[in-house]
Amino acid sequence: MPDTTRTAESDPTKTMDEPTGSTSSSSAHEVSPHLEPKPASETPSTETIFDCRNVDVLYSGKLAVAEVTAPLMKREITALIGPSGCGKSTFLRCLNRMNDLIPGAEVRGEIIYHGQDLYAKDVDPVQVRKHIGMVFQKPNPFPKSIYENIAFGPRIVGMKGDMDEIVENALKRASLWDDVKDRLKDNAFGMSGGQQQRLCIARALAVEPDVLLMDEPCSALDPISTNRIEDLMLEIKEQYSIVIVTHNMQQAARVSDKTAFFTVDLSAGESNRVGRLVEHDVTEKIFTQPEDKRTEEYVTGKFG
Ligand SMILES: Nc1ncnc2c1ncn2[C@@H]1O[C@H](COP(=O)(O)OP(=O)(O)OP(=O)(O)O)[C@@H](O)[C@H]1O
């Protein structure tokens, strides 16, 4: 039986969201070729992108999320919903090894991505995060120009090509180009909150990821900006697989193809609360005919 326990790395591996001058050498830690996304023509939309098998997450030895088994599908939007503390963000962070950066965090089980265990010893977490980008709750642009915010990631990963084109394409994909094309040298902090979040999405897309993880990306935004992000998600899901944590049931129902409902299991007592996946299915089914009573109670607002 292989040891599938992983402890948090002491190596302070930089993420794509850390604007330091350090560079990660992709040649020094070349990720297995299996992690490379396949061309679109070879990948029907029914393909599994993450096959999660018995995933547990512990913080300082204490179980926070237990036994998550679910296939997440390619070029679909999967929404993770559930009451506060059920482990949505914790599980999301497993999908690009962001939990590695949390001291004391430990992931057990398997997450198979393009046929390879994401946590295998020879897999470089920096490369993982290049393929699997992340957008956070609060827009977090770097204190740099709009242009430099986008160019930072491609430079770090050593992307070839004309940087102006890379920046333009990323901004276009995030529906931001028309808003900012005449002020690319302006500081990103001068943008509205909604624009900043689209900039963060553009920044994630600039390194040509395969998957986009979004942790409550609209919770700090007004309804109009939220609509724009939702429209954007629906546009880009043709090219990317998206997993989103949301507290907004309408948002999950509007944008997602599949929904995973998590709950907090209190059966071992309040101090041993643990998040569990209750149900994962087509979004319409989760919202109209869920299998589990707890799902029904949550989506109808009876608890949570
Ligand atoms: N860095 C951490 N260190 C220790 N415990 C943590 C850490 N992050 C989360 N937890 C614990 O893990 C459990 C799941 O938390 P998590 O934030 O993943 O839940 P969530 O469903 O995303 O919650 P919310 O909807 O409130 O954001 C909680 O009990 C939380 O206290």
Give a short summary of the structure:
This protein has 304 residues and is of the alpha/beta class. The chain has helices at residues 88-94, 125-131, 146-156, 163-173, 177-180, 193-206, 223-236, 249-255, 283-288, 293-299, and strands at residues 6-7, 48-59, 62-73, 77-81, 105-113, 116-117, 132-135, 211-215, 241-245, 258-265, 274-282. Strands 1, 2, 3, 4, 5, 6, 7, 8, 9, 10 and 11 form an 11-stranded mixed sheet that branches.
Q: What is the succession of H and E elements?
A: EEEEHEEHEHHHHEHEHEEHH
**Number of DSSP helices?**
10
User: Under the CATH scheme, which class?
Assistant: Alpha Beta
- Helix content bin: 25-40%
CATH superfamily: P-loop containing nucleotide triphosphate hydrolases
Which geometry do the CA atoms define? globular
Number of strand elements = 11
Largest sheet: 11 strands, mixed
Quote the average pLDDT.
86
Structural class: alpha/beta
Description:
- This protein is of the alpha/beta class and 304 residues long.
- It has a single domain (35-299), classed as Rossmann fold (3-Layer(aba) Sandwich).
- The chain has helices spanning 88-94, 125-131, 146-156, 163-173, 177-180, 193-206, 223-236, 249-255, 283-288, 293-299, and strands at residues 6-7, 48-59, 62-73, 77-81, 105-113, 116-117, 132-135, 211-215, 241-245, 258-265, 274-282.
- Bound molecules: adenosine-5'-triphosphate.
- Adenosine-5'-triphosphate binds next to helix 1.
- Keywords: ATP-binding, Nucleotide-binding, Translocase, Transport.
- Residues 50-289 form the ABC transporter domain.
- GO terms for molecular function: ATP binding.
